[in-house]
Amino acid sequence: MAYLSALDYVVLVLFLLFSGLVGLYHGCTGDRQRSAKEYLLANRNMHPIPVAISVVVSVLSAVTYLGTPAEVYIHGPQYWVISISKVIPAYVVVFAFCPLFYQLGVTSIYEYLDMRFGKAVCFVGVAINFIYLIIFMGIVVYAPALALNAVTGMSLAWSILAVGVVCTFYTTIGGISAVVWTDVFQSVIMLTGFLVTIIACCVNVGGFLEVFRINIEDGRGTFFDFRLNPTIRHSFWSVFIGIGVLATSYIGTNQIIVQRYMTCRSLKESQLAAGLGTVLMGTVELIAAFAGMCLYAYFAGCDPLTSGQISRADQLMAYIMVDLFQKAPGVAGLLISAAFSASLSTVSSGVNALATMTGQDFIRTFWPNMSDFKFTVILKCISIFFGLLCIVMAFLASELGSLVPITMSLIGLMNGPVLGMFSLGAFFPRANSKGALLGVASAIIIGAWCKIGSMVYPPYLTDPPLYVDRCVVANTSDVMMVFDDVTTSYWSDPGTSLATPPADDIPGIARFYALSYAYYTPLTCFITIVVGVLVSALTAKSTDPPVPAKLISPCVRQFYYCLPEGVRVILDDKLDEDEPGDLDMKPRA
Description:
Layout: H1 6-28, H2 36-41, H3 48-59, H4 62-75, H5 87-104, H6 110-117, H7 119-152, H8 156-205, H9 208-217, H10 236-252, H11 255-261, H12 267-299, H13 316-325, H14 331-366, H15 372-400, H16 403-412, H17 415-427, H18 433-456, E1 466-467, E2 472-474, E3 480-482, E4 487-488, H19 510-513, H20 520-539, H21 554-560
Antiparallel strand pairs: 1-4, 2-3
Helix pairs in contact: 1-8, 1-14, 3-8, 3-11, 3-12, 3-14, 4-12, 4-14, 5-10, 5-12, 6-7, 7-8, 7-13, 7-14, 7-15, 7-16, 8-9, 8-12, 8-14, 8-15, 9-12, 10-17, 11-14, 13-14, 14-15, 17-18, 17-20, 18-20
């Protein structure tokens, strides 16, 4: 274990202090966050560039910062396709969801579900996001703290408290403006961490091209796997389609991200922020994937997992930070600040989103006549509550142990049903609340069944080998020795994969459970939509009122008006053109 120097800790403290000062600045300038519109939407006056950057670091949490390089290190470079999979969310979010939400003027995206389907569907959506965010924020704080503790000896409790207290402070004081601008600062630190690590690795192994040569020589040269087998963990199709749909769910129908688009000054700027943010996200993920290749090139022949220097793959980034820069005081502190940046940005975004949903979907519902000033004060109190709850969840995660990945896997199944629920509302004018509720329930049940089945009958993974034939260590007699030439496979989620082929006597259904995790989101989204459409058709009544035009995505309305008159879906275009948020239903010339 390599311990940090005093200067490394100074760098970390300065980083956390500056993040807190950004929140203090925004809490003391302008209107001093005294109105709900300023606190939650920055008075809709944000520039699209910082908003786009904020989108990137809010999605790419510490799990990504530590996990993506480890994923590539263990399973090979096919995961890089995630960078181009952003084509799917870029189109869907920019042209379908962003115009719909922005022109409705919603603060919480679940206000849309209330308008479209009613309170029941709205509360179901809010409940799913609440559960997901509260658990996810705890894991986002705990996972990097655990990795840093194992590799550097940094106090686990100190790491959790530092991230939780600082992000709660600047989120509560400065509102969404502070969250966005600290995200910009933290993005610089996070990107610096990746680039410094990549450059140092390239210098150590002999150059940029040498990284590729080592990876290809050791059987890691498969960058495209076009096989259609849905059980392959990371084929081109599973990453491009599966993770592309997952990204659409997170970028297009998650309060954390959509709330940022809503802070822009116009619809065009909102779409620019969404599109640019999605492209930048793919770029950063490409850099993270290459960082994983650099890690392998640096440790080639002496895998720290197999040799016992670390115990988990997600410790690789922290391990290489101190291994490369232990003799350069302050640099390791800067790189570890990058891991803290990834945690802070996601947690602060989650706290702000939870406060927004609580305020808009509950407090405004039950106390609609509450004064704006009182409402804003309550929002700040709610932010403090969720910040403290995040800290509690992080400490709770440390006690759950192996239950953490299982819990996160099951909670992660919620992304597909949520995307399906919003898709039903935005793209299917005849969908109703009964269809939405039964669609979501069916998808969650089937998704949980698939995930639990994969735990009972773990899929077989064939990862490229990890070598330790060139490890040199000292024995108790100070005589240098070399490990025997051995190879090993390691998987990032023990308990959900097998190192040996499954037995022949397993039931046939077990092969269905081998479905790649990447397909879970499109599968559950598809189930939600299909069941929702069918149930809506079966329960529709002739007396049902038509759907207001403003609640259907603009791109869908234009498509319907291109249809022949006889098959055109009837929408309600009897809207007051002067009412804010109403949209023109007439086809464009």
